[in-house]
Specification:
The protein is built from ten helices and 25 strands. The chain is an alpha+beta fold and 486 residues long.
Length: 486
Amino acid sequence: MKIRILAAFILASLLFAACDDTTDSIGSSLTADEDKVLVKTDSFYVATRTIIADSVLSRSVIGSLGKVKDPETGAYLTANYMTQFGTLSNYKLPDAKYILSMQDGNVVADSCDIRLFFDKYYGDTLSVMKMTASEMARPMKENVNYYSNFDPAKEGFLRENGLKKNKSYALRDMSTDRYVSNSNYYPDIRIFLNEPYTDSNGVTYNNYGTYVMRKYYENPGWFKNSITFINNICPGFYFEMKDGLGSIAYIRNCELNVYFTYKDAVKDTVLVGTSTFAGTEEVLQTTFLKNDMKALESMANDKTCTYIKSPAGMFTELTLPVEDIYRGHENDTLNSAKILMTRINDKTTYSQFNFGTPEKVLMVRADSMYTFFNDNKIADNVTSYISSYSMKENGYLYSNISSLISDMNRVMKSGMAKDSAWKEKNPNWNKVVLIPVTTTSVIIDGEEKITRVMHDMRLKGTRLVGGSESNNGNVRISVVYSKFNK
């Protein structure tokens, strides 16, 4: 039998084995004695522990705003939010001669607001929260990595005498019945900017919208794209929590809206116009967090389990037994290596208020846990993997990380051949970290392709089986080897 054909049989047998836990007779059931492939299975203990992430790269399509108390840890977490606003290419306002909103012969805006739209949240929708919307003095730069512990106020990014607007709100607006009467209602936090505004040149306008409109008629080129708009007109706004406790809104979209009245030149009718500048993933949006590190450290010291918590909370570190896996199998092929990270169900009285279970968890090498995100990498199923929470498994299944194990073994052997102290100098060589993430994707030829992997900036968390003093069992890696019988 040709080796190529035989390899195809081996692959088919492994796919079959993934659906059947019984692998004892795989080798003898597929090949004749003269061509027999020996297949062996084994499992090994995996050491796990909780590590604390003091900060994560704050780059996400979802922003968080609010303050809550974690019912599990008693720790307070505050989430502040920054966004820039962009324009459409070749943005235009009506010719100034058609604008009917005028004051002393000059164009003015009827009104102006910022709206922070959210579709999901954590906490009590009736909790009264208070925040301050502050004008940025300069834009945050696209080529700089900002982490979740970055403070724009302390770093001088807020305009000292710029626009500041206090806003009290609850996630459920009880002043309107839209929340329950309209199925298309998209809840938002609305901040009006209708007070007099003085720009950095000392010019005062009746509101912020008037400033935006007059700058357009002064130089339309500043509005030709998002970059020119951000650098010349509006560097962005920072939304900082000042008071209140009990809710966090997950901001999906935001808008800077300028309202005005104008005359339709063709129909000769009066219209109300809205000029919208959107905060989208094309412009910078960041969440900045204040975490109770002492509370997190106390949880991390719990050796009976491990934790994954977001945003910027705790990750689970795994030490993969690479040398044990290859000991006695140096000439075998490692066909598969499977790990199930089982979730510990919470049955305490406060469990209904706990953070949600992370939907997706990235497995990445410990030495790459920052560069993976900084370099905008995508899980490649070779050195990094994403698993979605499975209710059936009650956990996160990484069905085959054999490529990762093989690569770790190769790098270790190469390093040790050059330096006998290589392992001591590279203590993370066989370690990976589990990190809650969100992803964006596109459909290509009917298949979903992940295009971006980001830290999950929502309140998520769970306990996992593991830890050095686990009373729920241990984490094990199941492997399948094969070799030709000589």
